[in-house]
Specification:
CATH topology of the largest domain: Rossmann fold
Number of strands: 12
Largest sheet: 6 strands, mixed
Oligomer: single chain
CATH architecture of the largest domain: 3-Layer(aba) Sandwich
Bound molecules: pyridoxal-5'-phosphate
Helix content: 25-40%
Distance between the termini: 28 Å
Structural class: alpha/beta
Order of helices and strands: EHEHEHEHEHHEHEEEHEHEHHEHH
Number of helices: 13
Radius of gyration: 19 Å
Length: about 325
């Protein structure tokens, strides 16, 4: 199969002010920060988390990377794209009983030469245990092990290259993002803490947890400790705890469709849609002081829409609408 050329050009960043009556009623100013790449699989938080892993692989002359993810994982698609662009090998341990190459995410990874290894849920649960990791390292000598979601110290360092503090309208009071394995929010906390060392401008960083993981706060704290950061105030807020990760309740899908129509910015319901839905709820409940300016990181993940369509979790019309805009 002839693959389209892959190109990792410099990310292009854009800010979008979200104007809606419910925001003006609460006197909250909301800005979305989007980071797009020529290779869409690397947009959002993806290349930012992977960039220093790839650099290390090149510097240390590793043969490739080995990583983990679910069968529709944005992280796996991003690793496959980054590996292909940089001519390195990639192996992924996928949480599934069987590698289904009709699945659009796995088909994409496979087409970019990623080796896909199915592991069942029970084995997958061991992915952070030292004995299991040792086994994987032995099985793939001279490969860099990239943790699930790219949430390592290097991933945090990469995200910390972003500046979400300075919106076009002035400095943010609150920085927010979707959070799952914790690296993204840890990186934003690190960046904002450094930016505010002299003068405390950002009051807090919020990770809106799209997974029901009670250990997420501890994971973020551990990542921050490793990064030797004296963090400004931050918290992890649970979203829609009655729905498991990636279950996409109707209200989240409807919210994404409405948001995309109204603002011309594509969002998906697993990460950014779920997180923004909760953020709007918090704004409506008066959680933020009137006059607050919130800066929200759009973390990408739009490749996941094809997987939602494949599983009939969204309709063909919803898929078309949500995939129809270039922004996001
Ligand atoms: C689109 C998208 N948004 C947000 C996140 C959450 O980032 P993290 O796992 O670093 O918390 C992910 C996972 O990497 C993601 O794919």
């Amino acid at each position: 199969m002839l693959l389209p050329p892959l190109d990792i050009a410099a990310p292009s960043a854009s800010w979008h002010q979200i104007v809606e009556p419910r925001l003006s009623e609460a006197r909250v100013d909301l800005w979305l920060y989007c980071q797009t790449m020529v290779e869409p699989m690397l947009s959002g938080n993806k290349w930012m988390k992977l960039q220093y892993h790839i650099k290390l692989i090149q510097q240390q002359q590793y043969r490739g990377l080995v990583t983990f993810g679910g069968p529709f994982s944005n992280h796996l698609a991003a690793c496959a794209a980054a590996a292909k662009c940089n001519k390195i090998n990639a192996t992924a341990y996928v949480r599934t009983d069987k590698i289904d190459l009709q699945n659009p995410t796995l088909a994409y990874c496979h087409a970019r030469g990623m080796e896909l290894v199915a592991i069942n849920r029970q084995t997958y649960r061991q992915r952070q245990q030292p004995a299991f990791l040792e086994l994987i390292t032995k099985r793939h000598p001279n490969y860099l092990l990239v943790p699930e979601g790219g949430s390592s110290a290097l991933g945090v360092q990469g995200i910390a290259d972003l500046n979400l503090t300075d919106t076009p309208a002035g400095q943010a009071d609150v920085i927010a993002t979707a959070s799952a394995s914790g690296g993204t929010v840890a990186g934003l906390i690190r960046a904002a803490s450094r930016a505010c060392e002299a003068e405390h401008v950002v009051k807090e960083v919020i990770g809106l947890a799209v997974v029901n993981d009670t250990a997420l706060t501890d994971k973020v704290a551990t990542l921050l400790k490793a990064a030797a950061v004296k963090p400004l105030p931050w918290r992890i807020i649970a979203t829609a705890t009655e729905h498991r990760y990636a279950k996409c309740p109707q209200q989240h899908i409807d919210f994404c469709c409405q948001f995309t129509k109204q603002h011309g910015i594509a969002i998906e319901p697993v990460y950014t849609g779920r997180a923004l839905y909760k953020l709007f709820q918090m704004i409506g409940e008066g959680e933020f002081t009137p006059g607050s300016r919130i800066s929200f990181f759009h973390t990408g993940g739009l490749q996941g829409l094809a997987g939602l369509r494949y599983r009939n979790l969204i309709t063909p019309q919803q898929f078309r609408l949500l995939s129809s805009t270039g922004v996001g």
